[in-house]
Amino acid sequence: MPKLDERLKAVAVQIRSRVHADIGSDHGHLLKALLTSGRIERGIAIEVNQRPFENSRSTLSGLAADVRLADGLEGLSPGEADSLSICGMGGELMTRILETHPGRVPADVVLQPHRRPDAVRRWALQSGFHLVEEQLVVGRQRYVVMRFRLDRSTAESANDPAYDAVDREAALLFGPLLIKRWETRFRDILVEEYQYLMRLDQRTDDSAQRLSALSKLLDRNGLP
Q1: CA 193 from chain center: how many Å?
Q2: Which of 3, 47, 74, 205 is the most buried (most CB within 10 A)?
Q3: Distance (Å, whole) CA 71 – CA 20
Q4: What is the pLDDT along the chain (224 residues), one digit of tens a residue?
Q5: For residues 116 and 107, what is the distance between their CA atoms, to the nearest angstrom?
Q6: Cα 89 to Cα 18: distance, rounded to the nearest angstrom
Q7: Whole-angstrom distance, CA of residue 86 vs CA of residue 43
Q8: Radius of gyration of the chain measured on its C-alpha atoms
Q9: Do 136 and 178 touch, CB atoms closer than 8 A?
């Protein structure tokens, strides 16, 4: 069984299904860990580039996994997988992949963007996917792992209970469930970013938006 880093461990514990597809699987280590631990019965690795495709094919050799050379969801048929993961890409790229073939996105999705998690959260709200778990992973870098579940009960896609009683702008930027849990490490990271943004002589529109949201959020909790 391959040794996963903390980021992929956090992804793996969110997955338990019959057939799981991993887009951008790189070396295929996540799928191998899921298969050998019994968390999934069959895996589908999808790679757009030849070298990662070969890496995944080597890692997953002899296991119940298909390795496909394709561009995102073009490599997956509707209803073929019960769950899906995309890790280590920017949030904008993830949303482009998911929006290209929405009918091929399974009901259970785990996403780990390395930037712009707010883009992923906006996609979910617009697409009827509810946020059921999110976790902050701190290592050499900071990552957020998010699990979404398609809500078939309502046509009102923006009605996600995860956002109840939380400022919507702050929740999209920093995570509604993380805000509700308000753990010490998360709070300290927000304070650190707030202090950094306050020291800037000039701010972009994005940084000004984050500072505004942080100011309201921290003030509401009696900080900084």
Answers
A1: 21
A2: 47
A3: 17
A4: 467 999 999 999 999 999 999 999 888 999 999 999 999 999 999 999 999 999 999 999 999 999 999 999 999 999 999 999 999 999 999 999 999 999 999 999 999 999 999 999 999 999 999 999 999 999 888 999 999 999 977 545 568 999 999 999 999 999 999 999 999 999 999 999 999 999 999 999 999 999 999 999 999 888 86
A5: 22
A6: 25
A7: 13
A8: 18
A9: yes
Burial bucket for residue 31 (CB in 10 Å: 0-12, 13-18, 19+) = buried
Contact of 10 with 137, CB cutoff 8 Å: yes
pTM of the model: 0.94
Query: What is the token pair recorded at 59?
Result: 């890692």
Q: In what order do the strands lie in the sheet with 129-138?
A: 65-69, 40-47, 17-23, 83-90, 108-115, 142-150, 129-138
